[in-house]
Amino acid sequence: MALTQKVKTHSLFLLSMTIFCLLLSVSKSDKKHYTSPRFNNYTKAVNIAFMSLESTARLFKNNKTSIDTLKQQVTAARLAYKKIEFYLAFYHTDYVNSHINGAPLLHIERTGTQPEIVEPEGLQVLDELIFSEEVTEERNKIYYLTTKLRNSYTMLYERLKIEDNFKNPNVLAMRMELIRLFTLGLTGFDTPGSLNAIPEAEVVLQAMKGFIEDNPKNKTSKNLIPVFESAITYLQNHTVFEDFDRLYFYKNHLQPIYSGLANLQSKQEDTENLKYTSSWNPDNNHMFSDDFLNPYFFTELKEDENNIEIVALGKQLFNDPILSNDQSLSCVSCHNPNKAFTDNQPKSFSNVQGKTVLRNAPTLLNSVYADRYFYDLRAFTLEQQVEHVIFNSKEFNTSYTSILEKLNTSNDYKAKIKSAFGKETLQRDGFVKSLAAYVMSLRSYNSTFDKYMRSETSTIEPRIKDGFNLFMGKANCATCHFAPTFSGLVPPFFSESESEILGVPKDPKDPILTLDADEGRYDNLITSENAWIYRKSFKTPTVRNIELTAPYFHNGAYETLEDVIDFYEEGGGEGLGLSVSNQTLSADKLNLTDYEKDALIAFLKSLNDAPKDM
């Protein structure tokens, strides 16, 4: 995730306004309250560490201290922050992501309908920059970023002194931090320059253990202490990033803490804070189970509206060519259950003989777990996704009026509509909800790998273990295909779908490679996203069932998993020598051995779980 492009520095005015609004929310009538000494000490320590980092950066700017000293200071600042991250990132999510520890990628802020490109700031940006070869060339920028970081945290620190939502031990926030540790920490996403993931994980668990010890609720709380200690000892004894056994650590240490904290969790504890911001299901006990996320977070369909009759109606609609104008296509035409709900074509066939649509058909298995749909992210809900297919002149080429007329005059459908909705006729909202209910039912979390991670099976092939550890570590796969969905749904809140610029060629077999002409997200007709940073940016799909869904990428350019691994091995399009603006994939070679490539593919194949009759 190299920060390869420079844009004008984001206005200090916006930062000042953000800070002002933050302070404004602190009423003079707020009363100081009691919080644990540990909480006060940790938040104060972060403030001191950030001030020290700024001072060191000032010296570095003036050539009065060494690179090694600067590296030590940013490492110390990150470790101080990690002790209290579980709380800060849970209760001040947007502020932390924007100013304290957000991803080191250019992003947009909307001014009316127009996008404004904003440079990232915070600890991840500093980690990447200070541990890069360009560090000596960026002295002024490093000092500027450390000053912004110190100012941003100072304002937050003043707020922390008087807010009253700290409840020891904040179990929900801790559980979410464990998800962050596993998916963003141990993968190296959070430390893109230093890869200091393991010491940071140790600090996270040490801090959590301390809060549990400060305020034990019951016997379960006390029993968790040795579980924490065992995990911490493992981290202390296994410190090499590329060699770290993430699979073993998850099964034997992280999962017992995750489920143990669940037993401490109050049903009412801070769930309102998650209701509209996260799809994570706080009642879940395992990251690799079907109930880890709440699918209703992503759809207009409510849980109390759904039933087997609506799903059955949706399935029939999904399979029926009556939906298309000339009755030549159905949803199954491009999303065949026998092909893991794809069509195994580079680009799906259109309603015109011999012609195709713009892109490859991704699997619909687990597709509900996304806040945006299609490769260019142009649809915001499953229901809206249906509309794009209905109105597209190359696909169904029809209208709601035409479809509903056909269905409501069909004797075959009348009884099923009555059974599903208790009404004689189907309306537009019922039609799209039926299809959404069926697509939502296409969930796949029962693969060989899932069963092993849930300890439902006791053994797994060594190559699969090695492949998972490569996927989550050295190969950098999991910094875009986040566990456990293995898609671009960003943890730990799992409420935002990510897109990436990979530089996929038009035809990788062509002796003279050219970049595919598809502009992706840049051309999704959403004005507020019409920014150059989204040129040739495409949604990151799930790699679950990937063996069954060839060919690959938005244009179906690569036919085999071996081809895909080799593409990433070379560093994407830029690594292959193509000119790719703002490629978000690192252009560096992965330096994978033949065995490592084979192990990666073995792991990917272990994610197969595509029932044919759904």
What is the number of beta strands?
4
Structural class: mainly alpha
Helix proportion: 40-55%
* Sequence of secondary-structure elements: HHHHHEEHHHHHHHHHHHHHHEEHHH
Average pLDDT score: 91
Query: Which stretches are poorly predicted, pLDDT < 50 over at least 5 residues?
Result: 1-20, 22-34
- The gyration radius over C-alpha positions equals 25 Å
Oligomeric description of these chains: single chain
Describe this structure in words.
By secondary structure, this protein is mostly helical. It contains 22 helices and four strands. The chain has helices at 12-24, 37-61, 67-82, 85-91, 93-100, 123-130, 139-160, 171-185, 197-214, 219-237, 246-264, 271-275, 308-319, 382-391, 400-408, 411-421, 428-440, 448-453, 462-472, 561-569, 572-575, 594-605; strands at 107-111, 114-118, 499-500, 538-539. A two-stranded antiparallel ribbon has the order 1-2. A two-stranded antiparallel ribbon has the order 3-4. The two termini are 38 Å apart. Residues 1-20 and 22-34 have low confidence and may be disordered.
Question: Any key phrases for this structure?
Answer:
two-stranded antiparallel sheet, 22 helices
Layout of secondary structure:
Elements: H1 12-24, H2 37-61, H3 67-82, H4 85-91, H5 93-100, E1 107-111, E2 114-118, H6 123-130, H7 139-160, H8 171-185, H9 197-214, H10 219-237, H11 246-264, H12 271-275, H13 308-319, H14 382-391, H15 400-408, H16 411-421, H17 428-440, H18 448-453, H19 462-472, E3 499-500, E4 538-539, H20 561-569, H21 572-575, H22 594-605
Antiparallel strand pairs: 1-2, 3-4
